[in-house]
Amino acid sequence: LQKILRNARDIKQVIQKVGRKMAPVEAVPSSVKIEPRPKLMDCRVLVVDGDEDVRNDAHALLERYGCVVETAHTGDEAINMVRNCEPDLGYHVVITDIRLTDLTGFELMTQLTGILAASKLILMSGFGYDPGHSIVQARKLGLHPKGVLYKPFRLDQLLETVEGILDG
User: Fold this and answer.
1) How many other CB atoms are found less than 10 A from the CB of residue 52?
2) What residues form DSSP beta bridges with 121?
3) What span, in angstroms and rounded, lies between the C-alpha atoms of 124 and 107?
4) Superfamily of 41-167 according to CATH
5) In Å, how far are 37, 78, 82, 101 from 146, measured between CA atoms?
6) How far from 133 is each of 17, 54, 113, 117, 129, CA to CA, in Å?
7) DSSP strand pairing (44-48 vs 93-97)
8) E-only strand ranges, the chain
9) Would you call 114 helix, strand, or coil by DSSP?
10) pTM listed for this prediction
11) Mean pLDDT across the stretch 28-55?
């Protein structure tokens, strides 16, 4: 199964590289310039959120800058994806909502401990609402100081947060 996943990821990366060399499919106004972000090139990101729109938006935005993005609907799905990655294909960053259908962001963080450093996690919260204090608890366990993203987020906020995590 891991070999199949690795082959699928390799194929996806090749397709993305070819696609970057082709003419853009979307009409982008000439006033909108996509600045290159070398830190994000080939960065592997897992986005975990129950909201399909959030997953799709984050995927589309990050992929534009060269990230290899995968998504999960639930905490359990994310845990399986992280565990089943080969060591050289692990995620550089995991972005997760603090309120998943099956886990809180803090619970996901504790279950990923030992597989993924807490400093590689970004917790998302809608409008700063955190009834279970997941962010406070996660910070006590080593969540990166820049590891919080408030929804709805702007493109620059997403990019700066991911780059901040990659900087360590």
Assistant:
1) 10
2) 94
3) 14
4) Response regulator (3.40.50.2300)
5) 18, 21, 21, 25
6) 40, 21, 18, 20, 9
7) parallel
8) 44-48, 68-72, 93-97, 121-126, 148-151
9) coil
10) 0.80
11) 83
Q: Return the closest-CA partner of residue 110 out of 145, 133, 143, 147.
A: 143
SS3 116: coil
CB atoms within 10 A of CB 140: 10
Residue pLDDT, tens place only, 57-97: 999 999 989 899 999 999 999 999 998 887 777 899 999 99
Tokens 């597989």 locate to 115
**Cα–Cα distance between 164 and 145 in angstroms, integer?**
9
DSSP track, 52-71: HHHHHHHHHHHHHTT-EEEE
- pLDDT above 80: residue 24: no
Instruction: Select from 56, 78, 76, 63 the least CA-distant residue to 122.
Output: 78
